[in-house]
Amino acid sequence: MSIPETSQLAGRKRARAKGWASTIARFLVVMVTTYLGLLAVTFFIGRVIPIDPVLAVLGDRAPAHVVERVREEMGLNRPLYVQFFYYIRDALTGNFGTSVLTTNPVMADIRRVFPATIELATVGTLIGSLVGVPLGVLAAVKRGSIADQVVRVVGLIGYSVPIFWLALLALLFFYAKLQWIAFPGRIDIVYEYSFTPVTGFYLLDSLWQGQWDVFVDVFRHIILPAGLLGYFSLAYISRMTRSFMLNELSQEYIVAARAKGLSETRIIWGHALRNAAVPLVTVIALSYAGLLEGSVLIETVFSWPGLGLYITNSLQNADMNAVLGGTIIIGSVFIAINILSDLLYRTLDPRTRVR
Question: 112-352: what CATH class?
Answer without folding.
Answer: mainly alpha
